[in-house]
Amino acid sequence: MQQYNIHTAKTQLSALVEKAATGEPFIIAKAGKPMVKVIPCVSNNTQKKRIGFLKGRITIPADFDKMGQNEITKAFEA
Questions:
Q1: What are φ and ψ of residue 23, in 5° steps?
Q2: In angstroms, rounded to a whole number, what is the distance separating the alpha carbons of residues 56 and 4?
Q3: I want to staple 4 with a disulfide (CB 3.0 to 4.6 A). Which of 8, 25, 48, 62 is the partner?
Q4: Which H or E run contains 49?
Q5: Are the C-beta atoms of residues 40 and 16 closer than 8 Å to each other?
Q6: What was the pLDDT predicted at 47?
C-alpha cells in the first residue's frame, strides 16, 4: 500500500482520492508515522458479497432447462 506524507497528500489530494475510489487505498503519514488510511466508501467487494445472496431462499428444479419444452416445440411446429 502506498504511503504519502501530509504535504504530498494535500497537493495531490484530487488524484489520490480518485485512485482510492478505484480500489487503491493509501496511507497518509506525518513525519513517516502512518496516521490515517484512505479507502473507498463503496468498495468493489460489495458486489462480490452479493453473489449468492439468495442462496437457500429459492430453489431451481433440476429440469429447469426443459421446462415448457413441449409447448415451445408445438408453437414452432404449428
A1: 105, 15
A2: 45
A3: 8
A4: helix 45-50
A5: no
A6: 53
Q: Which residue has the cell 504519502?
A: 4
Which pLDDT score is estimated for 43? Answer: 53
CB-based burial label for 51 (10 Å; 0-12, 13-18, 19+) = exposed
Distance CA 39, CA 57 (A): 33
Which grid coordinates are listed for 70?
413441449
Residue type, 70: N
The amino acid at residue 71 is E
Taking residue 39's Cβ as centre, other Cβ atoms within 10 Å add up to: 13
**Cell numbers 414452432: residue:** 76
Amino acid at 34: P
Strands 2-5 and 33-38 turn out to be unpaired
